[in-house]
Design brief:
Layout: H1 3-27, E1 44-58, E2 61-75, E3 80-94, E4 97-110, E5 115-126, E6 129-140, E7 145-148, E8 152-155, E9 160-163, E10 166-169, E11 174-184, E12 192-202, E13 207-211, E14 215-218
Antiparallel strand pairs: 1-2, 2-3, 3-4, 4-5, 5-6, 6-7, 6-8, 7-10, 8-9, 9-11, 10-11, 11-12, 12-13, 12-14
């Protein structure tokens, strides 16, 4: 092999090695990705506080207040939510003053919707007396309204009122329900079932008012 040919072969070999180095160590480096470009597996718990009192604001006024066993902030840079566990004492406010108190297993507040969702054995009290219990209650401060999407029980001095779902208008101090409502313990002959129409319950006067097509059924006891 001539010296010129030998130099050409050496140069080609060096070029090939250099290309392999560029591919193997520069273009194909999965471990060298920037941290911000790595895929996220889901929301991460950013802050956990054991035992705390937190409050939500609406138009600069306190809308609710909670004392819980623990509080955590979960989310990423784009969205986050506050989770509370073991709600020892909570307050729903009206005009900045306590309107109702409650306890619950847990709660979640999302800043994007400004809604407070209470879950797990939610019990509401008014004037020191139990008023309402359900598995879930959604408090909407901007509407001064609480929504109970599932079955709930209203406690009165004469018995219990079971409803499929209801809404609580804090401003009007009224409970609204549609569908079926069953009153127990108020009649010696048995339960009273009210179906259809729009049913309004006044917790102060413990009075019911039904509008629209309504059917009332009395259960005849022995």
């Amino acid at each position: 092999m001539s010296p010129r040919a030998h130099r050409a072969v050496v140069a080609a070999a060096v070029l090939i090695v250099a290309c392999l180095y560029v591919y193997g160590f520069v273009l194909n480096r999965p471990e060298e990705q920037a941290e911000d470009s790595r895929p996220r597996t889901g929301p991460r718990e950013q802050l956990v506080i054991d035992g705390a009192v937190i409050q939500g604001m609406d138009a600069g006024v306190t809308a609710w207040r909670i004392a819980a066993e623990s509080v955590s902030v979960v989310g990423d840079q784009r969205s986050s939510s506050t989770h509370v566990r073991g709600i020892i004492h909570g307050e729903i406010m009206r005009d900045g003053e306590p309107y109702m108190t409650f306890t619950a297993g847990s709660g979640q507040y999302a800043a994007r919707t400004a809604e407070l969702v209470l879950d797990g054995g939610v019990v509401f009290h008014q004037d020191g007396e139990q008023l309402l219990r359900s598995d879930q209650v959604i408090w909407k401060p901007d509407e001064s309204r609480a929504v109970v999407p599932g079955p709930a029980v209203i406690t009165t001095s004469s018995g219990e009122v079971k409803v499929d779902s209801l809404q609580l208008d804090v401003t009007a101090d009224k409970l609204y329900s549609e569908g079926q409502l069953v009153i127990t313990g108020t009649s010696s002959s048995g339960d009273i079932a009210v179906r259809g129409g729009r049913i309004v319950f006044d917790p102060k006067a413990e009075a019911l008012e039904a509008t629209g097509p309504t059917t009332i059924e009395f259960e005849i006891g022995d």
